[in-house]
Amino acid sequence: MKRTVVTTIAAALLMGCQVSQYFSTTRSQMEKSGVFLKTSIHKRDVDTQKKIQIRFATYNVLFGLWAQPESIGQMFKPYNLDVICFNEVPDGDWTARVGRVLGMHHVHVGKVSSANHKNKYKSILCRFPLFDKGEVEINAKGWKPASLVSAKTNIKGVPLMLYSTHIPGQPEVQKSAAVYIAENVIRGSMHDNLIILGDLNNQLDKGALKSIKTVGMKSIWKELAIDTAKISTHKHIETGNESGVIDHIFFRSRTFAVEVTNGGIIDSAYNSPEEEIQMTRYKTEWLKYGKPLSDHRPIWAEFFFESRLISKSDAELKAEGK
Description:
Blueprint: H1 2-33, E1 40-42, E2 52-60, H2 69-76, E3 83-89, H3 94-102, E4 106-109, E5 121-126, E6 130-138, E7 146-155, E8 158-166, H4 177-186, E9 193-199, H5 210-213, E10 218-219, H6 220-223, E11 247-253, E12 256-265, H7 283-288, E13 299-307, H8 314-320
Parallel strand pairs: 2-3, 8-9
Antiparallel strand pairs: 1-12, 2-13, 3-5, 4-5, 6-7, 7-8, 9-11, 10-11, 12-13
């Protein structure tokens, strides 16, 4: 009897080792093939007693061509967001319809449509009241006009200046929309807490986006230690080529210590397989790619804000961002 039990235990242990080795080998193969590329992360648990949680997202929605606003609202529901900034968004009540699904009722839609194309506006959707709403038109190198839609809000005691933007990418800083934002909007701003969200059409720290770093703005990608070299937020419709990470959330705070603890790309932004949408173009590609909600992928981030005892200067913030 003892011999039978010992033999059974030994067989079980051997089988367990073989299974463990199998899964280890399989995971290694999957990592090499890119299945486990890190597109989002939960960075760490934090002591939330003295910290204020705020969740942000941004999404270029392809002028609403590939999804109903209610579908986009349903996709965002699990993230319990406080702010969503949309790009290439239709005019009218499109943003408000997303908000009705999410219980977010404060909306600001800009008046400048990117490159004067139809339904390429920028908007801000917020769970908290928006005030001092505005828009800055940009006529820099590349397609024009571009713009930043802006609004102030106060979320759980954190005063914020929000910017939703969509600008042309450029290989060089000079005369770019990004350097216009850096020098004319961010540098010298009297606002203590700035958040810029949107489709900036450049990869992180490359080309024109180098200018954003020089004014003390931090990126969620760096704060979350996500390697953006191997992931992408945009698929080119006609070719199917990936553009890399061109959608961003940048932030700067003089009065709060800010920790980004969670976030990344939302890879599940698809319509249901049964969804049918009438469209005048790109229907073939929409079906080919599995009925995505847009040619972009949404990104999001969870922030924790904690009051600083002493406010930081712009020079100190710039040094932190290096």
